[in-house]
Amino acid sequence: MLTEFFLKLKEGGVPVSIKEFLVLMEAFQKHVIFGSVEDFYHLARTCMVKDEKYFDRYDRVFSAYFKGIIDVEDIETKIPEEWLKLLAERHLTEEEKKLIESLGGWEKLMETLKKRLEEQKGRHQGGNKWIGTAGTSPFGAYGYNPEGVRIGQNESRNRKAVKVWDRREYKNYDDKVELGVRNVKVALRKLRKFARTGSPDELDMEDTIRSTAKNAGWLDLKMVPERHNAVKVLLFFDVGGSMDDHIKVCEQLFTATRTEFKHMAYYYFHNFLYERVWKDNRRRHNERIFTHDILRTFAHDYKVIFVGDATMSPYEITYPGGSVEHTNEEPGAVWLQRVLDVYPNTIWINPQNETLWDYHESIRITRQIMQNRMFPLTLEGLDRGMRFLSKKQ
Question: Are the CB atoms for 37 and 45 separated by under 8 Å?
Answer without folding.
Answer: no
